Amino acid sequence: MTARPGMARAMAAAWALLALLPAGPLRAQSPPAPFEGTCPSGAPAKEHYCAFFVRYNTGDGPLQAMVGDFLGVTEASQTRSVGLIIAIDDYPNLPGHNLTAAAVDARRLQDFLINDQHFDEVIVLRNADASAENINYFLEDYLPRHADDYKGSDGKSRARLLIAYSGHGRGRSPSAQPAFILSGATDPEGSDGIYKMTEFTGDVANLATHYFHVLTLINACFGANVFPSGSTGAAASPTAPGSFIITAGSPNDEVQALIPSRGSLFFDLVVNSITQGEADPQSYQYYSSNQDGSVQSAGTLTLTLALDSYLTAAFYRINAIQKKTDPAFHAISPPYFGPVQSGVAQGGFFFVANKPPGDPLASISPYLKPLAPGSPIETASIGEMPPAPGLPSRSYAFSPRPASTEATADQSVPVGPVSSIKGHPDIKIFKPPVIYPIKGYDLSSADGRIDWNAFARSPRPNFIYARALGWAGPDPTFADRWSHVKGLGIDRGAYIKFNFCLSVQDQLDQFQRLVEADPDMLPVGIELVTPSVDQSQGARQLACYQQLGAAQARERILQLAQGIKLQSRKTPILLGNSYNLSVLTDERSETYMIWLNAYGPHNAISSKLKLRGRNPWTMWQYSGTLPVPGIGAQTTGEVFFGTPLQYEAFRRGEGNVGLEAAR
């Protein structure tokens, strides 16, 4: 077994994944036969199975922008989000082993997929309806056939599939193979009323060849037995196809519902952390508008890797808190995570939520309190479990709210890399950095000595900016950066920090002496920072700034930008955070491009993304903590706002390309 739990995986999952290859032969999968029938809802399924569709959208609605970004589609009809929920809470032949939590999971997952994630179709197999025959029909017939309806010009399907299971499971024993225990089971060690985990894994592996993304979430004791043995695989990207499984625990451990009325611990945290924007604080999307740049709408993105890391950290924290208050508390196994098979494991499923990132402790807060003595705790296995009150098979009626038809903020946002909406340059857009294909770094003496050999062996950025002049004068590391970047064939640019104590001409002369004329260099950056006494050289700069006044400082900045444009014959770009840009630029600065510095804690990022006026960003400094081989773990990262074609116009210095794209 190679899927690993633990804090080490939580720390390393974003950079290296565990790929799991099938341990033995999988069941042969024959191509599904064509089917001409249609359910009243429009689902292309056999009549017997129509009742299991609790949601079926004909595909006429608007496309969610982030779905289009990752899947590379422009119309809702080109893609499909499908959910299959298998939930078993009623075990009539196994008295005392009904699962309150599984019933809650079924209801919450259905609501989550329909009303929060706006899936196009949701299929629910619950209790007696979750028979081996019905499961086989959807896994082996309907789902693979349906995915092929959404193939793109490259032959790859643009459909996404989420499979969720909540119910009992059994582990490996001398007399039985690992299996999910279905509602009709009479003997948990027998062969009737069970679904072997190896067969389930084979079906999911086959589905991975039909769907762009497949994510399987399993809350069952011993559920990690779905993972076959294998070896390390590739890192995940949400823009590539792939199939992953996350299980609530290890192959040898039971999983628990600490508060059964909330459902299983696993699915309670999955649903809440995604809907509250907690699981992935690094991925978000903002739209700002109005002249003051205030944020109008915000959304979060949760990637598979981040979800797994969040769950692992949450489980460890809950263990630590509960053990502290109750030494007899039975520690919960952290989730297991891995790809389904080699060759289709590069991509990661994603979830979206129309709200800003939330408090990372909100979802786990109910579990950080001491559990009341005698609190009912359910385990999803058949073993030495205290009898639980029985639940009728249909005790929870499915009555979902209709999927919202209201237009959400991102439905007018263009698919792909953008920083604004055409015709509305006052609306600024910040998508997850992974959406922007043109990326780079900026370097200064703060980065210290660089191991260029190590850097050369790592994936290379599209561009690197190096600081030429700071408040203290020439940056002592500039010459080293400038020559090595050119030698590596990476686009290079220089930036200077506007000096309030020097005349415009003195700054132009310094720059000309330090930076050799190069027609291939990127537009020059001018960094704008309002001085304060706690900065290096800040006291002197502050005195000069106060003597000048803000209006005169803005005038000099415009003069410097014009002088650099004449020297380099390229339109410069103004670098600063939202505050510095608001103080040191005005509407006259729209001639020049904007390089916005905005990164930091997820709960404060919205205030940093405020960009007033009608000049969208051309470059976005989105991180100061990128781990880059040869440079270090505190590298500053940038993205360019647009397409490779727009980047070529930027390289040539052809005006304010960010603003031109929005006109």
UniProtKB/TrEMBL annotation:
Origin species: Dyella marensis
Peptidase C14 caspase domain span: 82-279
Sequence segments annotated as region (Disordered): 393-416
Superkingdom field: Bacteria
Any one of the GO BP annotations: cell wall macromolecule catabolic process
Entry keywords, A to Z: Signal
Single annotated GO MF: lysozyme activity
Coiled coil: none
UniProt protein name: Lyzozyme M1 (1,4-beta-N-acetylmuramidase), GH25 family
Family under the similarity heading: Belongs to the glycosyl hydrolase 25 family.
